[in-house]
């Protein structure tokens, strides 16, 4: 796996604010965030012309097909249920970054 510059946020609003300033190539996003939840953040990222190409992978403990469907509807490019394999996540990140 390559080296990546990472930034963390404490909630959805902070994640969105950081992403608008320093537009990331990819966001690993939990669904259960304080304030704006992951679905809302994903929709806002994908709707923003400056970030619409940013890839979003949802990471969550919510494994129901309904939750995965909501993530796809929000524009998520990937979905990982906790616990997950770090190798599988690294592969997905690499694949999404190559497709940019």
Strand-and-helix sequence, N→C?
Answer: HEHEHEH
Distance between the termini: 17 Å
The biggest beta sheet reads:
3 strands, parallel
Record field, number of beta strands = 3
Gross CATH architecture: 3-Layer(aba) Sandwich
The name of the CATH topology is Rossmann fold
Number of helices: 4
Kindly report the name of the CATH homologous superfamily: Response regulator
Q: How would you classify the helix and strand content by structural class?
A: alpha/beta
Taken from the alpha-carbon principal axes, the silhouette is globular
Percent in helix: 40-55%
CATH class label: Alpha Beta
Q: Report the uncertain regions.
A: none
Strand order in the largest sheet: 1-2-3
Mean pLDDT: 93
Describe the structure.
- The chain is an alpha/beta fold and 100 residues long.
- The protein has a single domain (12-86), classed as 3-Layer(aba) Sandwich (Rossmann fold), CATH 3.40.50.2300.
- Helix content is 43%, strand content 15%.
- It is built from four helices and three strands.
- It has helices at residues 12-21, 38-47, 65-74, 86-98, and strands spanning 26-30, 55-60, 78-81.
- Strands 1-2-3 form a three-stranded parallel β-sheet, with helices on both faces.
What is this structure, in a nutshell?
With 100 residues, the chain is an alpha/beta fold.
Which features does this protein show?
3 strands, Rossmann fold, globular, 3-stranded parallel beta sheet, 100 residues
């Amino acid at each position: 796996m390559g080296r990546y510059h990472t930034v963390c946020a404490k909630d959805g609003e902070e994640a969105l604010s950081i992403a608008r300033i320093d537009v990331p190539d990819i966001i690993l996003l939990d669904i259960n965030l304080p304030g704006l939840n992951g679905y809302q953040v994903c929709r806002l990222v994908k709707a923003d012309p400056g970030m619409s190409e940013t890839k979003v992978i949802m990471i969550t403990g919510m494994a129901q097909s309904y939750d995965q469907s909501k993530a796809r509807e929000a524009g998520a490019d990937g979905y990982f249920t906790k616990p997950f394999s770090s190798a599988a996540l690294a592969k997905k990140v690499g694949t999404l970054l190559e497709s940019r």
